[in-house]
């Protein structure tokens, strides 16, 4: 299975539900699964499907935006709505520069399964990370696939999909 990233923008406050709907839609379209399989969490919190070890996924949401990455190998994804960067963290970077770095760092730790707490250590983004330019309007979306040369397909959904 190639890496595919589904994304959508909805009402602020409903992004967690939106990310779950994206997962369901991606599993149906890409894998023929009409129900989300039972999930467990690895030691550091990364969710997985124990009955489908060949299906890897990752979810992210931010201020109404949501994304779901689906792959045949480990994958990490992050989305952030472009907004003013936190001054205490930005280190003089522009808002866009900060969120490009932040999403790459977060996609890296989500790919590795280390958990979001690893962001405290300011990890160096994995060189496999790629910003998905112009994928969701007003957002920075970064995916970290297992293969640096992986083809990444994007699917932007609108409305009730």
- Which CATH top level class fits? Alpha Beta
The SSE order reads EHEEEEEHHEEE
Give the number of DSSP strands. 9
Q: Quick check: average pLDDT?
A: 93
CATH topology, anyone?
A: Ribosomal Protein L22, Chain A
Query: Unreliable segments (pLDDT under 50, ≥5 consecutive)?
Result: none
- Give the overall shape, derived from the CA principal axes: globular
What's the multimeric state?
Answer: single chain
Examine the secondary-structure arrangement and name the CATH architecture: Alpha-Beta Complex
Instruction: Assign a percent range to the helix content.
Output: 10-25%
Query: What is the radius of gyration computed over CA atoms, rounded to a whole number of angstroms?
Result: 15 Å
Count of the separate structural domains: 1
From the N-terminal CA to the C-terminal CA, the straight-line distance is 23 Å
Strand content: 25-35%
The SS-based structural class is: alpha+beta
Count helical runs: 3
